[in-house]
Amino acid sequence: MNILGLSAYYHDSAAVLLVDGEIVAAAQEERFTRKKHDAAFPANAISYCLDEAGLSLDEIDYITFYDKPLVKFERLLETYLAFAPKGFRSFVMAIPVWLKEKLFLKVTLKRELGSLSGLEQTALPPLLFHEHHGSHAASAFFASPFKKAAVLCLDGVGEWATSSVWLGDGSTLIPQWEIRFPHSLGLLYSAFTYYTGFKVNSGEYKLMGLAPYGEPRYVDLIKNHLIDIKPDGTFRLDMRYFDYATGLTMTNRRFDALFGGPPRKPEAELTQREMDIAASIQVVTEDIVLKLATTIHKELEVDHLCLAGGVALNCVANGRLEREGPFEQIWIQPAAGDAGGALGAALATWHEYLNKPREANDLNDTMHGAYLGKSFSQDEIEDYLRGVEAPFHRYDDTELMPEIAAAMDRGAVVGWFNGRMEFGPRALGARSIIGDARSPTMQSVMNLKIKNRESFRPFAPAIKAAAVSQWFNTESTSPYMLKVATVREERRLPMSDEEKSLFGIDQLNVARSQVPAITHVDYSARLQTVHEETNPRFHGLLSAFEAVTDCPVLINTSFNVRGEPIVCSPEDAYRCFMRTEMDLLVLENALLIKAEQPEWHDDESWKETFQLD
């Protein structure tokens, strides 16, 4: 039984293939088109999934879309009617798009699928539609290791739901309750993303990274004016301060007056006000998540919790939930956003529509480490390198790992391209840029010379799973880089009185631990625990680095530059390598040294597809 799950036309189009309930392949369309957050029909992702399994579209039994567009259109109309005549301009802009593309989505999908496969529409597999939050919930629970768990989905909005609670038991998901649009924790956070000058739907993690530089001075202001939070964690927003229901922006002039000025312009200087606002909305978000989790635990009387939806990518809130929350264990879907909806739609078809049983062991999830994307053979890589006359050295692993470890010990920044590409927004050692976490200058080097992004942005550590409790205040694993923990006291460095007196962005260059490149200003780090079972080569590299340095920690960031999706192919990787100040590039067992490469003449046409955020 072959099931294809799709997400498209809103955010982060993706395709996922299940074969007899097993996740065989999954990828976002952006990786192939090189358009960040590409929302177009995922033709390339579908083709990849079919190729990975050696199938054609006529061998697929069901295709399931992650959303119900007619219900979403109903919400759009009812919202405009409720707020009329306000919002007419926004209505006039939205309706043509719906009438042309989204309202008749079934016809559009069949046309695209037919064009992709050459099949007549009557010969296409049955096309199903699953509810948006149901897709999130299915991606969280059915892929988790838990036999029984509560499920909490938090995002901007699906059809109507913005927050939903489910009980997962075996192969069933039972809806419990939901909070409906326009009252949305995800849209509240996005409103502050917009107000602080970052791009909605992609800049939320920047707001989270900025928060530790500020003080939560505005928490009471937010709670007194913008959101009414009940003791059980449910909430209502005061829509007089927001414009997203009917307008073309997230916030309005009343919001501006509340915070003492207009939104920060993108790329403008960050001030202490933005840092304090970021700290404040982060605290409010964490408080709501904790209250909701406490209520769910009390109501459902289960020990495990699964999370999905865009808010589940807030790893700071996840870390606090794990430390202070009532659940014994939490599990977060690594593709928690809309891309993961394609996975949930497919899993829901298998377990709920077809009533197929589910096996879980409370130990291992079914995500295969999220390494579900395209890989390239050594021959394919070397053929490409010879074609562009790029000099390289070929090593086996016993020679390569010590070579790379020694180079990083000397300060080298390395592009690491290994195995199957990751599914979801995080680089997990398949398409990563890596370096020495002990270096006090590595964060600024990577931010400014490699990633071309804001200097305040923190980097994540990759650490051998067995060593995590020796360096961080946690016993928990975090294979998908979705939880934050603090550096252990004995690993921290003493600070001078002058350093302690610094505040705001001036804190950036103070080395705070033995691994300063991944230690944020509040001693936190967004952990990735690396497991030999799911990524033996990356684990082997960490072991080689530990043998040289006595440190099992590397800095790990996504293999891309600002505005570009994570690299997919050897061509993408080589282009990124040559356009930045990386020192080495590893493509499986091929090692490229920057100093040996021919002069690079950049094709500027790539810039047209990238969306700076």
UniProtKB/TrEMBL annotation:
Stored InterPro entries: ATPase_NBD, Carbam_trans_C, Carbam_trans_C_sf, Carbtransf_dom, NodU/CmcH_Carbamoyltrnsfr
Alphabetical list of CDD domains matching this protein: ASKHA_NBD_TobZ_N
Domain (Carbamoyltransferase C-terminal): residue spans on this chain: 405-593
Pfam families: Carbam_trans_C (PF16861), Carbam_trans_N (PF02543)
Source organism superkingdom: Bacteria
Residue ranges of every copy of the Carbamoyltransferase domain listed in the record: 3-347
Similarity comment: family membership: Belongs to the NodU/CmcH family.
Protein name: Carbamoyltransferase
Species whose genome carries this gene: Candidatus Paraluminiphilus aquimaris
Organism lineage string: Bacteria, Pseudomonadati, Pseudomonadota, Gammaproteobacteria, Cellvibrionales
